[in-house]
Amino acid sequence: MQIVQTDVVIVGGGGAGLRAAIAVAEADPDLNVSLISKVVPMRSHTVAAEGGSAGVVQTEDSLDSHFYDTVAGGDWLCEQPVVDYFVANCTREMVQLEHWGCPWSRKDDGDINVRNFGGMSTARTWFAADKSGFHILHTLFQTSLKYASVHRFDEFFCLDLIVVDGRCQGIVAIEVATGEFFRFEARAVIFATGGAGRVYPCNTNAGISTGDGMGIAFRHGVALRDMEFVQYHPTALPGSGLLMTEGCRGEGGYLVNKDGYRYLQDYGLGPVDPSPRPKAMELGPRDKVSQAFWHEDRQGRTLETPLGTAVHLDLRHLGRAKLLERLPMICEMAETFLGIDPAEAPIPVRPAVHYTMGGIWTDGDTATNLPGLFAAGECSSVGIHGANRLGSNSLAEIVVFGKVAGEQAARAARAAPAIDARATTHEAEASMQSALALLGQDGDQRLADLRDTMQTAMENGVGIYRSAEGMQTACQTLEKVRNDYSRVRLDDKSRAFNTEWLTVIELGFTLDVARAMAYSALQRTESRGAHQRLDGYEKRDDEHFLKHSLAYAVADAPPRIDYEGVVITKLPPAERVYGGMARQEGH
Amino acid sequence: MATHDEIEIEVLRYHPETDSEPSYRTYRVPFAHETSVLQGLQYIKDRLDGSLTFRWSCRMAICGSCGMMINGVPNLTCSAFLREYHPGKLRIEPLAHLPIERDLAVDQTDFLEKLASIQPYIIPAESKAVDEGPFTQTPAQRERFYQYSECINCLLCYAACPQYGLDSGFLGPAALALLHRYNSDSRDVGKADRMPIVNAQEGVWACTLVGYCSEVCPKGVDPASAVNRNKVISTLDYFFRFMAPRGASE
After folding, report:
1. Within 10 A of A27 (CB to CB), how many other CB atoms are there?
2. CB–CB of A142 and B121 under 8 A?
């Protein structure tokens, strides 16, 4: 096993990891940073984010309004002091990205342009056409090349944390090209490993979004918080789940059922206006818009397509010029994947899994409850999304909290005790042996079958609407898959660039994340945000469940689900109101 | 997947631990109207042969991972479709001109070093604090560089470039396009620092104007136009260096 001695390890080269790397380098250029990523950083899933990133910028807008929208959007399951910090720092980070070259779309006078987004009281979403995540990621990656203290380890797969004496002291990684094991000794580790959309069969996520960091942290006793809250994005392509950005609706797109009717007016989101009204109709929050699809589908008012039922995302009235300026990638994707010109024909869409609201528990400074380990971005639960994330808050999150994680890890690295080399060696050897055992084992289970069984169980049991019976079935199936996992057989027993081996390891992480989601969901006997039940718990229950769930790993048993209170400082729980009666704070 | 037909996919195989040279293997893959070439490869890996090795990630032509040669043409496999090749067959090979790591995965190191060498970040005239707010940039100013910022680093243009195939020292289409992207940005004054790279033997002058890079670019970046604009700039830079102190050509 090769050894790399470093100060700060960052796992994940997406927006959060790159922002963290730059923050460490700026905070202390003497600290050696190792940026570990299983793909070359610009391949990270940040690249696929389309619509934009929140940051209050219009004179009539306010931080209070962004705060209110975020907390109400999250159905009050947000850590309010953390949301306060978040909204106060979004715009600063958007400007920082601008200084680094991000090609934000502009108004005619050269000022920053912003668009409307779901659940937001006013236009505050910065955008770079409909490739916002792509441009943010490439800007961060290219800017990171300026910093000599940042050393990249591209296509290194993080296998495990090294925990000695209750403190995180590094990681074990596999170099993909060779299959060689590397031990990184570090005084602080940041997980920025992204989400876990691959728990589900139909999702908007990249193949790499397998919840690795969540799974690894969970196995080391770190809590996964609010895992039952899984976001379905309302407008994805049937079958593939490819994302049609909420920006389509921000620009004025309509959702219509098979009768051409803007059905969202029947779900508390009206009145119907010809042009977008913030927080109404197509600009409702994602949980409610996806739930409305589910009801339309049940009532037979959706369209049949070869890959499943759908509604229409109609952009025709926006005109070709606007579509090409604001939504060029949507036009390109519709053409490539459907053979449709959105200026001429509506796009069939249906909800698909998009975002993991929960994640690795951290405090407001991104520290986990494992000393030496920090987490930022989608893999983390820093507390800003609650039970339902608002669109454009996640791109802002990765830079706001990526920066915090970098600064905090730099501080922690300077203060940390010396690495216990003998003990870290021992821990790393154990991780290596278990990975090698997977490679050598002889069994009768095929990887793709296990993955498909897990994904189908989650979609059927832990979907947009849930019941105890369905969730119990999902839990039972997941335990069976977990059993079968020990009998998986690989076709490929070699070491160099063995993606089958790495995919099996990923599946182990994804399976743990799925279990955390399913058991957390089963035990939340209320409906809130993205967790909606049909079995007598249709209402929000603040008395018992104004609480975060905390899932802890238990050896050879289902996760233990615990709860912690929500810190509410200035906005007491109230009813979420959208449509014509919605509060437009800041106006 | 509503399967209605089968297609033959012939794939280049090469394992660095056991093979002295590449060979080909053929698989039969069921497909439907919407099945991408990438999904065809995934079917092989899931159901027929788990050892087949290739990169992929986003499935929507933005991450740049899944570029390969399909019947000799560089293409993104996620946005090419099996139906387009039926009833013929497909031969899939790793991107040309790049060393093979294993099967369909190529070594990207050379490109990544080239990308880093062109100083692909804003070099501002003077440092501006974040608190002072964003730079002003009109839509027209943005338009001057935007197209070149859309490169997804998929390397199709390197597989297409005959000059890079002859001499991998050539900086190549994507790196030169990115260089032009920063040089053309109203917020950047780093052109003088980057001109030696443009002027060097391995810079723009190595390009022989074939233009196949722009033809295969899946994002319409048109690296050939970036290269040729820089030939003009490089010529001017050459003259100005005799007429004025360095930096006057900015």
Report:
1. 18
2. yes
Would you call A326 helix, strand, or coil by DSSP?
helix
Q: Which tens digit of pLDDT belongs to each residue from B209-236? A: 889 999 999 999 999 999 888 888 888 8
Q: How far apart are CA A380 and CA A382, in angstroms?
A: 6
Please give the Cα distance from A180 to A63 (Å, whole number).
Answer: 49
| Cβ–Cβ contact B126 with A under 8 A | no
With an 8 Å Cβ cutoff, are B61 and A134 in contact? no
Domains and CATH numbers, chain B: 5-106 (3.10.20.30), 109-243 (1.10.1060.10)
Q: How far is A55 from chain B (nearest CA, A)?
A: 12
Q: Which residues contact A383 (CB under 8 A, 6 or more apart)?
A: A78, A79, A82, A83, A362, A364, A548, A567
The secondary structure of A215-252 as a DSSP string is HHHHHTTPPEESTT-EEEEEEE-TTT--B--THHHHTT
Task: Determine phi and psi for A474, rounding to 5 degrees.
Answer: -60, -45
Asked whether the ipTM of the predicted complex exceeds the cut of 0.95, the reply is: yes
Q: Which residue has the tokens 């939504």?
A: A327
3-state secondary structure of A557: strand
Q: What percent of chain A has pLDDT over 70?
A: 99
| Chain B residues 152-191 within an 8 A CB cutoff of chain A | 152-153, 178, 182, 185, 187-188
Dihedral sign computed on CA atoms, order A74, A76, A80, A82: negative
Asked about A138 being catalytic, the answer comes back as no
Which residues in chain A are contacts of B45 at CB distance < 8 A?
Answer: 499-500
pLDDT band at B3; cut points 50, 70, 90: low
* Catalytic status, residue A233: yes
User: Which tokens sit at A37?
Assistant: 């990523």
CB pairs under 8 A between A and B: 163
- Prior bond of A103 cis (ω within 30°): no
Give the range among A474-478, A542-546, B52-56, B233-237 with minimum mean pLDDT. Answer: B233-237
Question: Which stretch of DSSP H or E encloses residue A26?
Answer: helix A15-27
| A491 contacts on B by Cβ (under 8 Å) | 49-51
Domain regions of chain A by residue span: 2-229+357-425, 235-352, 439-538
State which CATH number among 3.30.1330.40, 3.90.700.10, 3.90.230.10, 3.30.360.10 fits the domain covering A235-352.
3.90.700.10
